[in-house]
């Protein structure tokens, strides 16, 4: 091989290395493995630290967001912008991932829903039956395994915990709210799938009211104005014929009728937004409803 040819090959190799694509990594983020002992499953938590974390000694409120594959980078970005440009408190953002070895659909159906729905459901994972109804157990996993992990490794103010969910993720939040409301101090619940299992969460709301005189929690509900039912369809609590705006208004009204002394709830309907587009607005307004303005 001639010297010229060797030089050409070396140049080509150097160019290929220089142009090789590398993964994009979010600044000030970490990934930690966590074992859910009671569930016998493994998850990951994604952690985003505030800009001032490395240079301060203070503790920060913590935002726990489910459906982390999508919602974690969105929540991180919005929390940072609100701190930088709207003067709100900085916060640690924790993303709760899907179970290792499960598809996102399989994991969230099982972990975020409150019951086994009536009807036939097909699993998206070959060889495994469809799974639902483990929201209560998953909520206990967050409190028993995730909270201690975050408290042990970060300067987290664990007296100020915020839950963020959307759609099925909001069903999980409602399950926690209606079983152990003090688990979180503030709930941001977007477009909850209240049609699920023929409106089972309405029954659970009434069951909670029958056994409790108070609900110590702050709740921000948000939904897109387009999440309604066309005029030519008859409303029912099924996925196909749900009026999600009307369902959420009914649920919020039911909570308010009990006049719980320590419940603060607010509902916002965002015009011209649908189920796919509304989450960033719900999150933004939900954080504004809780995080303080920094003087």
TrEMBL record:
Keywords: Hydrolase, Signal. It comes from Massilia cellulosiltytica. This is Alpha/beta hydrolase. InterPro entries: AB_hydrolase_fold, Esterase-like, Siderophore_Hydrolase_D. The keyword Signal applies. SUPFAM superfamilies: alpha/beta-Hydrolases. Belongs to the esterase D family. Transmembrane segments: none annotated. It comes from the Bacteria. One of its GO terms (molecular function) is hydrolase activity, acting on ester bonds. Residues 1-20 form the signal peptide.
């Amino acid at each position: 091989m001639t010297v010229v040819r060797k030089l050409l090959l070396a140049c080509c190799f150097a160019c290929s290395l220089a142009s090789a694509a590398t993964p994009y990594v979010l600044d000030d983020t970490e990934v930690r493995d966590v074992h859910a002992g009671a569930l016998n499953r493994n998850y990951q938590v994604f952690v985003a630290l505030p800009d001032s974390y490395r240079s301060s000694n203070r503790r920060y409120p913590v935002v726990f967001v489910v459906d982390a594959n999508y919602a974690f980078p969105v929540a991180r970005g919005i929390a940072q912008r609100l701190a930088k440009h709207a003067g709100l408190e900085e916060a640690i953002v924790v993303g709760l991932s899907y179970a290792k070895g499960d598809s996102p659909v399989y994991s969230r159906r099982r972990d975020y829903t409150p019951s086994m729905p009536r009807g036939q459901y097909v699993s998206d994972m070959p060889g495994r039956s469809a799974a639902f109804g483990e929201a209560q157990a998953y909520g206990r996993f967050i409190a028993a395994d995730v909270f201690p992990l975050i408290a042990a490794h970060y300067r987290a103010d664990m007296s100020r915990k915020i839950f963020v969910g959307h759609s099925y993720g909001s069903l999980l939040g409602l399950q926690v709210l209606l079983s152990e409301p003090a688990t979180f101090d503030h709930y941001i619940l977007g477009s909850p799938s209240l049609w699920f299992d023929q409106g089972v969460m309405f029954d659970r709301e009434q069951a909670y009211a029958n056994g409790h005189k108070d609900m110590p929690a702050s709740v921000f509900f948000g939904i897109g104005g387009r999440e309604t039912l066309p005029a030519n369809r008859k409303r029912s609590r099924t996925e196909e014929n749900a009026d999600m705006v009307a369902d959420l208004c009914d649920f919020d009204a039911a909570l308010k009728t009990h006049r719980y002394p320590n419940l603060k709830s607010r509902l916002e309907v965002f015009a011209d937004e649908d189920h796919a587009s509304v989450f960033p607005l719900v999150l933004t307004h939900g954080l504004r409803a809780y995080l303080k303005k920094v003087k």
